[in-house]
TrEMBL record:
WD repeat segments: 283-320
Keyword Repeat part of the UniProt annotation: yes
PANTHER family per record: GUANINE NUCLEOTIDE-BINDING PROTEIN SUBUNIT BETA-LIKE PROTEIN 1, TRANSDUCIN BETA-LIKE 3
Top-rank taxon: Eukaryota
The name this protein goes by in its record: Guanine nucleotide-binding protein subunit beta-like protein 1
Source organism (scientific name): Oryzias javanicus (Javanese ricefish)
Keywords: Repeat, WD repeat
Gene3D superfamilies xrefs: YVTN repeat-like/Quinoprotein amine dehydrogenase
Keyword Disulfide bond assigned: no
A Pfam cross-reference name: WD40
InterPro entries assigned: WD40/YVTN_repeat-like_dom_sf, WD40_repeat_dom_sf, WD40_rpt
Length: 328
């Protein structure tokens, strides 16, 4: 590596449980915020200037929080819990009360995926009580857009990524399944576009770069599988990235398309150059599995942060490769 691995710039404590999900909100607010969801059913809204929680929500009846995301210029928060509910929170009042909810019926750990279609509407994709089914609804109306079930048996839905291409008929959705398959769906036509076997074990996580039409996925094995979408929307497997230790909880690409972060079962966060998947750094701080990683996207690129949440109940924050470092 070109540089020694850095230390975290600071650590957030007091989440009260393993950190399953993290989400930055650095625009449209007075101070940069980090939202976290714990396995004890608590959502924290951390003020990154004071490094303290600005709000704490006891959510989902104490069930584990799987996923959080702000929407509509940070006026609202959406959360998903193991209580089979997706809840919508109004952040303007600070009351900590959910204003609406959707029953998913899902008993798994598959995180939702969301895209904002305009200033007031979004599309939300989630797994349902039928383990191989994905449902997509419009919110806040909760109107059903479609349900997607594979033609062949692929097992349980494990992970999702919904996005809107720059051109084409409408949203596309990537899904990872229990048998190790990746499947690309055309949401508008409710049709399967492409399928590939990316892993010998369940796909634990995936992320996708819509600008480069390139993605990467992880499982319980000692490798990451990278792939691209060709001009016909076929998933084409590319090179694999070998890992020292097995198991990846989450993958995240920085907004500038230069870095990839992986959350490892071996307590480590690994940083790769996204262009060539070159290993750049191994971040060692946590004493248990790293469950979540997230990059911030502030207006000033020099203030970008990486957050990592662990089973050890701590959130580490890192400032890495922010000023033109080579990251091939």
């Amino acid at each position: 590596m070109a540089h020694p691995a850095p230390s975290p710039i600071y650590c957030l404590r007091g989440a009260g449980g393993p950190l399953n999900t993290l989400h930055f909100c650095c625009r449209g607010t007075d101070a940069p915020l980090l939202f976290s969801g714990s396995a004890k059913g608590t959502i924290h809204m951390w003020n990154l200037n004071t490094r303290r929680p600005e709000e704490t929500f006891e959510a989902h009846g104490g069930s584990s929080i799987l996923w959080v995301r702000t929407l509509w210029s940070a006026d609202s928060l959406i959360s998903q819990g193991r209580d089979m509910q997706v809840c919508l929170w109004d952040l303007r009042g600070g009351s900590g009360q959910a204003v609406d909810s959707v029953f998913t019926g899902s008993f798994g750990f598959c995180q939702c995926s969301l895209i904002e279609t305009d200033q007031t509407k979004s599309l939300l994709a989630f797994a349902t009580e039928q383990s191989d089914e994905i449902k997509i609804i419009e919110i806040p109306s909760k109107t059903t857009v479609c349900s997607l079930v594979p033609e062949t048996k692929l097992g349980m839905v494990m992970c999702l990524k919904l996005w809107q291409p720059d051109s084409g008929p409408g949203p596309l959705l990537l899904a990872g399944y229990e048998d190790g398959s990746l499947l690309l769906w055309n949401v508008t036509q409710r049709s399967e576009l492409s399928q590939v076997k990316a892993h010998p074990e369940p796909v634990m996580c995936l992320t996708f770069d819509p600008q480069r039409l390139r993605g990467i996925s992880g499982s319980a094995e000692t490798k990451l599988s990278s792939w691209i979408l060709d001009s016909q929307n076929n998933i084409q497997l590319q090179e694999s990235v070998e890992l020292v230790n097995p198991g990846v909880s989450q993958l995240c690409i920085r907004a500038d398309g230069k870095l990839l972060a992986s959350a490892g079962w071996d307590h480590r966060v690994r940083i790769f150059g996204w262009k060539k998947l070159r290993p750049l750094a191994v971040l060692q701080y946590h004493t248990d599995m790293v469950l979540s990683v997230a990059f911030s996207d502030p207006l000033d690129p020099r203030q970008r942060l990486l957050a990592a949440g662990s089973k050890d109940q701590r959130i580490s924050l890192w400032s890495i490769y922010n000023e033109g470092a080579a990251t091939g």
